[in-house]
Amino acid sequence: MAEPPPFVPVRIAVLTVSDSRTLAEDRSGRTLVERLTAAGHVLAARALLRDEQAEIAAQLRAWIADPAIDAVISTGGTGLTGRDVTVEAHEEVYEKAIPAFGTLFTMLSFGKIGTSAIQSRACAGVAGGTYLFALPGSPGACRDAWDEILVHQFDLRQRPCNFVEIMPRLEEHRRGG
User: Domains (ranges, CATH) in the chain?
Assistant: First the structure.
């Protein structure tokens, strides 16, 4: 039997989108930071922005361009109100969407909050070789997404497949291979 591959830490940026919270009051971002570092990953950057689509998209683009960042997880602004524009900002920068992430997150949420899960627009995609995830702004939603999905997909030892093993191939179209 083959030896499992070694753990590879992923460098993750955390973005909180909120018109009402400060970084000190940001329980959702703190939840993500605590979980990702406890799992052995690296907090590459952290920021808090207001619900402004252009600002969110600009921050995503800056982090996508940063070779020291492998993934971005945002929290907040995924609901249905007029100020919830995080999903639109994410979709503006995606090269490829990962629709199954939103589907899987909704399935998990339904088991915990019932039909209220319909109001979440959690989504994910890839751009510039960087994974991008948009989560709801509640600490519970961040815990669920991390504990039930992301901690596994950010682990090279996860079988049969995971996000880490394909990271080197995310930009192969740019290299002609």
Answer: 11-169 (3.40.980.10)
pLDDT in tens, 65-118: 999 999 999 999 999 998 999 999 999 999 999 999 999 999 999 999 999 999
Q: Which residue, among 78, 71, 132, has the nearest Cα to 106 in the 3D structure?
A: 78
CA distances from 24 to 21, 55, 63, 73, 134 (A): 8, 20, 22, 18, 21
* Token code pair at residue 21: 């919270």
**pTM of the full structure:** 0.95
The answer to whether residues 55 and 15 touch, using CB atoms and an 8 Å cutoff, is no
User: What is the per-residue DSSP string for 78-127?
Assistant: -SSSTT--HHHHHHHH-SEE-HHHHHHHHHHHHHHHGGGGGG---EEEEE
At 40, is the secondary structure helix, strand, or coil?
coil
